[in-house]
């Protein structure tokens, strides 16, 4: 299952409706977050790719957190991350427990020492 998801992600178009790419806060790394399905209440899974300033997908570590930011904001929850290799990771069992606006924060570090963080806003219905 995870291998299939990773392969689907590698071949995914940047124009796929569930794909979001943005520069990190420090503009050192580029992050791409993608889900296979529409994001709804419950456990969600996301693919993440992290690209360094040299254009290579060489991230060696990613830490991710989820937090509801609308209605009744909640504390951030750590997300289980599985490394797939070549700068790609799976965010597993992301607990989107209720409808509203959520923030997924992803921090990455490359083999060459670049570090950055990006935050993705999601509307959960």
Using brief descriptors, characterize the structure shown:
1 helix, Immunoglobulin-like, mainly beta, 55% strand, single chain, 125 residues
Topology record:
Blueprint: H1 2-10, E1 19-23, E2 30-34, E3 42-51, E4 59-68, E5 77-85, E6 88-96, E7 100-110, E8 115-124
Antiparallel strand pairs: 1-2, 2-3, 3-6, 4-5, 4-7, 5-6, 7-8
What does this structure look like?
- The chain is built from one helix and eight strands; from the N terminus they run αββββββββ.
- It has a single domain, classed as Immunoglobulin-like, CATH 2.60.40.1930.
- With 125 residues, it is mainly beta.
- A hairpin with a 4-residue loop joins β7 (100-110) and β8 (115-124).
- The longest helix has 9 residues, at 2-10.
- The protein has an eight-stranded antiparallel beta sheet with strand order 1-2-3-6-5-4-7-8, with helices on one face.
- It is elongated.
Number of domains: 1
Number of beta strands: 8
As residue ranges, the low-confidence spans are 1-13
What kind of sheet is the major sheet?
A: 8 strands, antiparallel
Distance between the terminal alpha carbons, to the nearest Å? Answer: 25 Å
Number of helices, where a helix is a run of at least 4 consecutive DSSP H or I residues:
1
Strand and helix order: HEEEEEEEE
- Proportion in β-strands: over 45%
Helix proportion range: under 10%
